[in-house]
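JOB MANIFEST
job_type = single_chain_structure
chain_count = 1
residues = 179
[input]
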Amino acid sequence: MTYKKQLVFLLTLISILALFYTFSIVFSYDRSSVKTALYTWLEPETAVRINRIVFNTGWEEFELIKRNNQWFVSHNGGEFPARQARIEDFLNILTARSAWPVRSANAATHNRFGLGEYASRLTIYDNFSVLLDLLVGDYDLTGNEAYFRRAGQNEVRSGDSFILTYMTSPVESWYDVIN
């Protein structure tokens, strides 16, 4: 083969390989499944109706109550002003669309994920109904994710461990402390 024929052959081969590579990225099965796996615990338009959040960690229970667009922490019979930005950040995690892959749909696995009868529970209300009743389980092996399931359902999802961090932080972390 002459130099010109070799060059044409190599450029054609490189072009074909580049096309295959581009198509493999665009039509990747993993990529399309991530798009369809985007999930949210609460729709953003629903979040504006929230007026009460109940945290039950098994050893402690407290509520965040919203009155006149201000949040308050109700704990042990007392009521204290709450840090508004902390609550907004917490609700942003619950309303953000992100990958929350399904890990199991079998009730027999709930205890393994920390989602059995002793799981922490997060219940979010509007005036008259429950908007979200979420069981919060254990961290995964990496500590980056945790396990979650809606009360009354078997589907276990894994996702952002920040929810578990909010659940296990002391109630005082929700107080609006003015120095």
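[summary]
Confidence is low (pLDDT under 50) at residues 29-36.
The helical segments are 3-26, 29-36, 44-47, 84-95, 162-168.
exit_status = 0
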